[in-house]
Design brief:
Elements: H1 4-63, E1 81-87, H2 97-114, E2 118-124, H3 126-134, E3 141-143, H4 152-167, E4 173-183, E5 186-195, H5 206-209, H6 219-294
Parallel strand pairs: 1-2, 1-4, 2-3
Antiparallel strand pairs: 4-5
Length: 295
């Protein structure tokens, strides 16, 4: 059995760890509250862009007899080159948050490669960069310190390179992967085709559609501008949503670590008391034995 001094040092060490994890949980909780509000606002804006873009794309496709609006709206089920854009955190200590995204990326990568497609990886977040760099897998585009501090301009600059390769025919499909916020206790992996844009039929009636004061001749110009905003904002929103999910995951991980530390302190305290009682018993036996030997 370990001596009293060693057990006491272990108890103090675990208590210090418990204080740290508890503080990290509180910090993550405060950050989550702010990021969650921003995420909800951004989601409303993204949904509105999607509705307007859907409506205009449908209107333009009806004007063109061939239905060919733009390359960005032409489905491609058998792409030869696929870019996977994914978001991870810059920091750890958030449970399986990052590995869930990385495993999904590897799965999608394998699926496309099995179909004969070339897959290229573009990553936001230090954890994703470190993982694939360690595996020796090439990353054609990578940026750190963006997922921890989402910025619209930097997000636009990042995704602009992806769009440029798509427009130039270098890549034929772009898939966006990130771990998003579902609720305080759950994160949800989100996989979507960013390019070509897959839009559902607009759920707007004629009265709602007429609210868009746009001349028919201007539809294509407006569509191009909205398409750029749609892609840029979806990239930015994925960063915000991922950050909210990261704070949620870290809050849960730190709560679990705090509870484990508390249980460990209780276990060590029991061990300390047993060792102390054993030491006292041994001293008493030695005293009694000494007295008996003097008789």
């Amino acid at each position: 059995m370990a001596n009293l001094k060693e057990i006491k040092l272990k108890i103090n060490s675990v208590k210090n760890t418990q204080k740290t994890t508890k503080a990290m949980k509180l910090v993550s909780s405060a950050k989550l509250t702010r990021t969650r509000q921003l995420s909800e606002q951004a989601r409303s804006y993204a949904n509105k862009i999607n509705d307007v873009l859907s409506d205009i794309a449908n209107r333009v496709s009806k004007v063109h007899e061939d239905g060919n609006v733009d390359k960005a709206f032409i489905p491609n089920d058998n792409p030869k080159t696929v870019d996977i854009v994914f978001v991870t955190a810059d920091k750890g200590l958030c449970g399986g948050f990052n590995m869930a995204t990385i495993k999904t990326v590897n799965r999608i990568k394998a699926e496309y490669e099995n179909k004969g497609a070339k897959v290229r990886l573009r990553v936001v977040g230090r954890k994703g960069i470190d993982f694939f760099s360690f595996q020796g897998i090439e990353l054609i585009q990578k940026v750190a310190d963006l997922s921890s501090a989402p910025d619209y301009d930097r997000a636009s600059d990042f995704i602009d390179e992806v769009v440029e390769d798509f427009n130039n025919g270098i890549t034929e499909k772009v898939v966006l992967v990130y771990n998003g916020f579902l609720n305080m206790l759950t994160q949800e992996l989100k996989v979507r085709d960013l390019l070509p844009i897959s839009l559902e039929e607009a759920e707007t009636n004629e009265e709602e559609s007429s609210m868009l004061d746009i001349e028919p001749d201007d539809d294509e110009e407006v569509l191009n501008e909205l398409t750029a905003k749609y892609i840029n904002f979806n990239m930015y929103y994925s960063l915000i949503d991922s950050l909210a999910a990261e704070h949620s995951a870290r809050m849960q991980a730190m709560e679990a670590a705090t509870n484990n530390a508390k249980e460990r302190v209780n276990t060590l305290t029991v061990e300390y008391n047993k060792a102390r009682q054993a030491a006292i018993t041994t001293e008493l036996i030695e005293i009694i034995s000494g007295v008996e030997s003097l008789k």
